[in-house]
Amino acid sequence: MFNNVPTLNHEEQQKAADRIHEFMANGMSSGEAILIVANEIREAAAKKQAEQTSEEE
């Protein structure tokens, strides 16, 4: 369930929770909201990793 999810600090966790609550307030199910936010976090982490890798080359 938590495959490829980077570790988040407290501030990042709070932002993710707020985003999930925002989706749910607009009528989205909790599962779908969590999935969307988790995917956004994964994509941001992958982009950051790619940028770091390209800087090292």
UniProtKB/TrEMBL annotation:
Protein name: YoaH family protein
Organism expressing this protein natively: Photobacterium lipolyticum
Lineage, highest ranks first: Bacteria, Pseudomonadati, Pseudomonadota, Gammaproteobacteria, Vibrionales
